[in-house]
Amino acid sequence: MCGIVGYLGKNEKKEILLDGLQELEYRGYDSAGIAVIEGEKLNQFKAIGKLENLREKTKSYHTEGFGISIGHTRWATHGKPTELNAHPHLGAYSYVVHNGIIENYQELKAELQAEGVNFLSQTDTETIVHLFEKNHKTNKDVFSSFEATINRLEGAYATLLITEADAETIYFAKNGSPMLIGFHSDDVYFASSDTPIIGKATEVYYLEDGEYGYAREGVVKLFNAEGEKSFTKQALTADKISAQKDGYRFFMEKEIYEQSRVMGETMMGRVLDDSIVFDELDETFFKGIKAIKICACGTSYHSALTSAYLFERLAKIRCDIEIASEFRYKEPLLTDDTLFITISQSGETADTLEALKMAKRAGLKSLSICNVDNSSIVRESDAAILTRAGIEKGVASTKAFATQSMVLWMLALYMGQQRNTVSKKVLKTEISAMLHTPKALIVTDELHEKLHRLSKRYLHGHGFFFIGRDIFFPLALEGALKLKEISYMHAEGYPAGEMKHGPIALADSELFTIALMPHTMHYDKIKSNVEELSARDATILAISPLPFDLADDFIQTKYSSHPMVEFFEMMVVTQLLALEISVRLGNDVDMPRNLAKSVTVE
Ligand code: AGP
Asked: Which atom of ligand 1 lies at the shortest distance from residue 296's CA?
């Protein structure tokens, strides 16, 4: 994902920008660039690939004295990763960097092109700088030209603009994408998250949507739709680790809360009003494909299991799922009309990587769904779709699972489009449910508090059964895995209908059943299964939008009309339950015993 750094002051600007961008590297990017104005001198450098390439290009460049500077790491959304598409984007005498998507850029671009403006890149961002210079031609005041520019932008943006027309000022605006301003004596810093400025700035102001303004001579002027506004800076921690936790107690907690936002990034540029687009896949990618086989481990395997229901339902294509470590040694029968999909957060899981190599040797086309660009699995695959969850530090995977499940849902719909198995009406319903998902993932104080209180009743017992049907069965498996990993208590995920085929023998008051009871999917069936358990005195925690009398504990979810929206909302409940139980037991939430984030041995 894109990252922004800006600096106004007397210190060496190149180093501040490059070091700051380095801190944002984990977000993933495919090109980087910086632009500096010092007195009369304007310098700009861009490089594709890793930041080392940009460091190499700038190694004999040094800045001296007061100046303004902006830098960016780009994650391609519009246009391929090339130097021309890398930020900063240049007009005739101004530079801009931008995170987010300008939704009306095509309209703005057409308008500017009709007036003779020449565009060098394929990006939406370049429209900002040309629009600014066009406004500046008629209105000589730089700030009002900038203000008029951002008033025309629709969509999400965090942007910085510098111009030779006002070589001592950085202009900024934020709407929908994060940006903050850091302060230390007369130095002013900008960044898309606080890690690049920790150790440099001592105070910070986190911009709100709709805010914009400029920084000049160490002073920031801030505006919104109502006019100029005052703002209060807050102290910025010097501790990088606690800053990275953004005030949360654990990385896992932070990552649970982040899910709503990252889901927007996962969908960005891919979920359009009436279609799903994957720039990563060329039009012929699915040619000749008659079936799908997915291999993965752990949580990634659970997202694969969920997707099998979606591929078969939406794309009407056979989809088999295998645990990678089993697949490797079963002498599988593989045919080249099967698309081989691997799913991995880290992209380095040994079993998954080896399964992929085996499939490739058998001549299968491969696609990976991964969170880490340039990881071994991504490099080994014919094509890759990145989940864009951002770095996940908690060993117990949360936002990676959420974004994998979303990408797979999108992919099933995308294949359905291509194979003409989804009607326009279904496409519309699915897309509207997808767009509703970030809302379903918001963690309210009320929900978190309720799970905190309730967790004290679940610190003992002889085991947990998470049960669900259909896509809620893989979610039950995932809920049980989360609890196991960080509470060290025994938990199993089970298809609700299977309980009576054996496990119900375990039922008594010390058996905790976490029942996933969505109203959009087989509600009556699962209700009967839970009643059977309740009749045997099992303790029931029901998660459902429909009140359930037999529940010992009850978490009421919202009524939503789509099972996947219910799925994501219930996923958050199971994650928070595991977290709160683990905290009460005094366990190391982020680094549970015996586990590693990336399993690179078989
Ligand atoms: C999830 O909470 C795990 N820690 C683990 O199951 C993980 O999902 C598994 O090891 C696969 O990792 P990957 O997604 O990086 O391939």
From this structure: 16
Q: What is the CATH number of the domain that holds 569?
A: 3.40.50.10490
Q: Ligand 1 centroid to 342 CA: how many Å?
A: 12
Mutation pick for ligand 1 pocket among 297, 574, 575 (CB with most ligand atoms within 8 Å): 297
What integer pLDDT is reported at residue 243 of this predicted model?
67
- Say if ligand 1 is within 6 A of residue 592 CB: no
Burial profile 71-91: b = 16 or more Cβ within 10 angstroms, e = fewer: bbbbbbbbbeeeebbbbbbbb
Mean pLDDT for the stretch of residues 213-236: 95
pLDDT band for 449, please (50, 70, 90 cuts).
very high
pLDDT at 28: 65
Q: Are residues 300 and 165 in the same domain?
A: no
Q: Which helix H or strand E contains 366, and what residues bound it? A: strand 365-370
Q: Is residue 553 in some structural domain?
A: yes
**Dist. CA 567 → ligand 1 center (Å):** 20
Residues sharing a CB contact under 8 Å with residue 12, sequence separation 6 or more, in sequence order: 62, 63, 64
Total Cβ atoms within 10 A of residue 138:
8
Q: Does the annotation count 360 as an active-site position?
A: no
Mean pLDDT of the chain: 93
Same domain for 436 and 508? no
The reply to whether 595 falls in a domain is no
Q: Whose CA is closest to 486, among 578, 575, 577, 399?
A: 578
pLDDT in tens, 368-385: 999 987 788 998 999 999
Tell me how far apart the alpha carbons of residues 188 and 66 are, in angstroms, rounded to a whole number: 12
Atom 10 of ligand 1 has which residue's CA nearest to it?
A: 298
